[in-house]
Design goal:
The protein is an all-alpha fold and 533 residues long. The protein contains 23 helices and 2 strands.
Length: 533
Amino acid sequence: MHKTAVGYAIGKLMQVMGVALLTPLGIALWDNRGLGFPDILHQTEVYSFLLAIGISFVAGTAMVIAFRRGQDLQRLREGYAIVTIGWLVLTFIGAIPLFFYFYTGYSENGSGNFLLDFTNAYFEIMSGFTTTGATILTNIEATPRSLLFLRALTHWLGGMGIITLAIVIFPAMSGSAYGMFRGEVPGPTTDKLRPRLTQTAQILWGVYLLFTIAETILLMFAGMNLFDAVCHTFATMATGGFSTKNASIAAYHSDAIEWIIIVFMYFAGINFVLHFKALRGNLQSLFKNREYVFYTGVIVATILIATVILYHFGLSSEVEVAEHFRAGYPSAEQVHEHYAAQSKTITSFYDCLRVASFQTVSIVTTTGFITADFDLWHDFIRFLLLFLMFFGGCAGSTGGGMKHIRILVVIKVALLELRKLIQPRLVASVKIGNQPVEVDRVIHIVSFFILFMGIFAIQGALLTLFIPDLITSFAASIATLGNIGPGLAGVGAVENYAWIPIPGKWILVFSMLVGRLEIFTVLIVLRVATWRK
């Protein structure tokens, strides 16, 4: 391991982060423009952004100069280290403005406790970068716009990958480009659209930007202001889920906004290589892709099942709902009022179809937006949505989870083994469509599946030490490992993660990072042998 190569690349990433923070700083300056100079510098969000930008540029530039001899020493091993350590460092920088906002007492989540406020800030920004969308904010609408935009910006950068963006900006980093690209882009495959990874990264970011602009315009036509449209677009295209409203998308009471977001969440869950091909007129590539067909089939089937059950059975009984674990211990009157309000959201078949479509696409793509409290729905739908949290989007999308291609391969492996038990002399390979999957790739996918399920189980068990409810513990585990955000019970659709003790939050921070970087990237860096020369 060439540590100088890692230091040089992280310095470059810090410079990129410093540039990115200029936009939320500009919003903070604009929103406080009436104070004048130098009073405006005394505003928490202003001086905290200036501090974060200063650290990014000064420390980043110092590292680039100090480790410039490592520029040409970056290889595959260094690439994995750059991705993991880079994400941890950039999350720290991004957490600085939020930490000061909490620690100085301007937020309802502020406590004046250094460790708790830093944990909350780091948790929130890691949730943003990893596109998880799990929040500790209890009053989102009271948060300054600059910090709300910061949350949305971390989504957008983390969705396609800030390392991938760095490859576009600094082509000289191409020495370890494949390692970084492989470590950050979700899925078991990393298709190259062009011989040079820099060109591939440019194409992916170009498609990403095109969809971002399109959704922003449509949301503004549907009634959102520019700020909300940009923030929700960033969260949608990154399949993140941070909203500028306490009630998320439900706050807008607009069918048009909901359907626009449904469509773009669905797009965000598709491999961006397929988007590029489709935009160039090759629509057949979509329907020839087995993962895309499987992904679409899962979504359509779940929507139909959830709609029928919602329309026929309605919500679970109020008695059952009252027994669900809630961190805030709401009164019987509060539970009744919430139950009555949610009952009104499914009064017709169309209402059932709309909310079922939104929540299904939101969960499957791991976006995490909400328009209804699905934790009140029939237990079969709750189980189905929890089950689909493991699936995630397609490989090469911004979605989290295991990815549909991995689920498809695991199913194929299981069916093939059943056939071999009946026909011991059978010689066959796992195929996706008519194409056989290489044995090494099958082993890689099955290993990922085992590790994913193992980490989910271990984290769920550890969380029971800090969370007094079994369903909440395991729901929080998959909601963070799969980068979804909302889970069930104490971390359900209308709940948040603020109440979880500090050790539990750090377990979830690790869970979000491991889930976003696809497990192997982080585990490779944790091995002592990786750091030996």
